[in-house]
Amino acid sequence: MTLALNPPTDPVMAVTHADPAQYYEALSCTGLHFDSTLDCWVAPSAKTVQQVLSDSSLLVRPENEPVPKKLIGTSAGVIFSKLLRMNDGAIHAALKSRISAAIQQLSLAEIQQQATQIAAQYSWCAPIDAEAVNAFCYAIPTMVIASLLGFEPDEWAELCQEVNDVVRCFAPGGTDAELGRGIIATSLLEQRFYRQLTKPGPLLLSLQCEILQCGFDDPPSWVVANAIGLLFQANESCAGLISQALIHTNLSEKRKNARELIKEVMQNSPPIQNTRRFVANDLGLRGCPMHAGQTVLAILRTPDGITQANNAFGYGPHQCPGETWAYAIAEAAIEQLLQLKLDPTMWNSHRWRRSLNARVPEFINKEAL
To answer: Of 141, 233, 295, 350, which one has the fewest beta carbons inside 10 Å?
Structure first.
């Protein structure tokens, strides 16, 4: 349920605010600045964000904490340390080229076909209520990628739950209970993937062949970590794209198809609203002196919708190689939901998933209001 609230007071609060559009518009006019409340630099415009995401002195993890302290000494910490998304420099460059090559070996037509088939064959529990739709939005990305990795449908339900738990564990701001469940889920996923290495699907086979060429010690561990990473990366971004598209069906009298809805969401409210970088060496950026150890919050939602859409999946070395897959998966899921002709008033009642950077609506059954 969307309530009238006071405007957000910072860009982290804005992520899950009911209506942050005016706040983001005002923020974009402030220029690069230091926010003493958040204790970080804020890059609020699309062009500044591109500079931040391209600068080699701004890293995806703090130099003194490559793995979050809460994960050190756990299997989740080992997986985290080997993820493409969580590395910079030579390791990142080697992984990026090989994982991108593995992804490109599957055509977009194959992804579209697989996503359409899985969305159409999804097993709904009657009646289809708000909670069922929420489950669908999170499940479809995992199921599509899991199928390409070689997992059989009888494993998908458990995989979906494990991936959901891992996302909560890796994300900043998780509770102790979420951390505990995520560590267990990471261990279970790791075991699943090691078994799957002997009977890989096309995507997992491509990852094996490509990552072997990186020359890393223990190549299977890098394959397993980054296969889990593909599931992890798709979770909130795809779910947010699908569920926000449903809300957008009620914002216009004209009936729009999935592709049009996706374009609208990406230009108005991308699922991932910000990302962080950490200053490795003192530098000046747009006249601002940044010091080693400081943090930069790059705002991915800006009033300039076209540039924003270009930044929404990252920019520079860490630009997501799976952007076209995300659109294909979301489009198939949205089209399936539109074909079901569900009561559109269902999309009016929602809460925002607790998150510091992902804007994902979760629908609420009317009787729960």
So the answer is: 295
Taking only the tens place, the pLDDT of each residue in 283-303 is 999 999 999 999 999 999 977
Contact by Cβ (8 Å): 57, 317: no
Main-chain dihedrals φ then ψ at residue 57, nearest 5 degrees: -85, -5
- Give the separation between CA 178 and CA 169, rounded to whole angstroms: 6
Are 367 and 278 in contact by the 8 Å Cβ rule? The answer is no
- The confidence score (pLDDT) of residue 3 equals 47
HSE of 369 in the Cβ direction (CA atoms, 13 Å)? 14
Say if strands 33-35 and 40-43 run parallel, antiparallel, or are unpaired.
Answer: antiparallel
Contact 363, 346 (CB under 8 A): yes
pTM of the model: 0.95
- CA 247 – CA 245 distance, rounded (Å): 5
Token pair for 114: 């697989």
First-last CA distance in the chain: 8
Q: Two tokens at 116?
A: 């359409």
Give the separation between CA 129 and CA 240, rounded to whole angstroms: 18
Strands 295-299 and 288-290: unpaired
Collect contacts of 191-200 with beta carbons under 8 A, ≥24 apart: 192/151, 192/155, 192/159, 192/162, 193/149, 193/223, 193/224, 193/227, 193/228, 194/220, 194/224, 196/149, 196/150, 196/151, 197/223, 197/224, 199/150, 200/149, 200/150
Residue 348 has pLDDT above 50, yes or no: yes
The span from the CA of 31 to the CA of 29, in Å, is 6
